Amino acid sequence: MDPSKWLDWIRLPTKTLAALCIVFGVMVFSGDTSLEKFGLKTFVEEYRSYLAVGFLVTFALTVVNSLAATWKFIYPWIAEAYWIRIGRKRLLSLNPTEKKILRYYIQNQTRSQTLPIQDGAVNALQREKIIMRGNSLGSLRGFDFIIQPWAWEYLNEHPELLDLQQLR
Prior knowledge:
There is one protein chain. By secondary structure, the protein is mostly helical. Helices cover about 65% and strands about 5% of the residues. It has 8 helices and 3 strands. About 15% of the residues are buried.
């Protein structure tokens, strides 16, 4: 067997690796009577060590590929939960300029407003993923900024963070 061909096994789809793992496992772990029914007894006796290596390799690759796919599926949710947790903490320590920007969203019950892109408070809120730029085209007044859905919900539930109780 050509060792350079072994890398092709690593690139096989997970479903194919799992199927091969099952076949190798059946051949390695089946009793003599079962193997005799399929006419595989002599084949398995002669190549059992190779079949066992094939089973171990395909099993390991199946597990690793499955874990990688699971992580790829779950990671965006974990990252989003992390940013929301950090963002909620950040909303507890807003300066007056940032409160004024965010107060506009809640008071006017709108999810977007035009803000100057060169403003440091706007850039800080954008960098911390509390607001985001709505589009790449601006006007003379600035760019449209949209409040993140989690921040919208949280600030509507906790208007005291923006000193809204003083204004009502």
